[in-house]
Amino acid sequence: MPLVTPLSPDHDKETRELATFFNETLGFCPNSVLTMQHRPAISKAFINLNKAVMANEGRVTSALKRMIAWVSSNATGCRYCQAHAIRAAERYGAEQEQLDNIWEYRTHPAFSEAERAALDFSLAASQVPNAVDKAIKDRLYTYWNEGEIVEMLGVISLFGYLNRWNDSMGTSIEQGAVESGEHYLGKHGWNKGKHA
């Protein structure tokens, strides 16, 4: 049972219009956004931030951004966001082999060294205490420019917010996200947990 009950998608007209973004990303408006509507300024600001962070300005693809989000959510343990991130990675064209082997990104041949550097950055930046160091920086600069690193950290930071929001709220997970979580993550023990 969530801490706060999500409101109807029709509760706030501006949020509803902005939330059409999630129909492309996930195929539904997330319950997290519906809960944020209790204070519409938060739901609208969050959606606009999400759109800005997920815009493609360089070589960081939509699929890689969602895999960065998955690594961050996996590091913090938010099952809701893990399922959402893997679903969005699938919807944005991540390679099937990457989706099937996301847990082994460090060693699986489906991932390039540039992708590994980005995903290791996500893991290090999502830990408490933060583990970003000179070695992580040097690897990033081998493959990515400063604007792309800003995009990556935007994703990591956005999911830091979402991980805390959804785990604290105990946000109920939507069926589409459950299906993706079970399909890609279930073999490694993923389940709905508190998000039932």
Automatic annotation (TrEMBL):
One of this protein's Pfam families, by short name?
CMD
Q: Which domain of life is it from?
A: Bacteria
Question: Where is each Carboxymuconolactone decarboxylase-like domain found?
Answer: 40-120
**What residues form the membrane-spanning segments?**
none
Which Gene3D superfamilies does the record cross-reference, listed alphabetically?
AhpD-like (1.20.1290.10)
Q: State the name under which the record lists this protein.
A: Carboxymuconolactone decarboxylase family protein
In which organism is this protein found? Gangjinia marincola
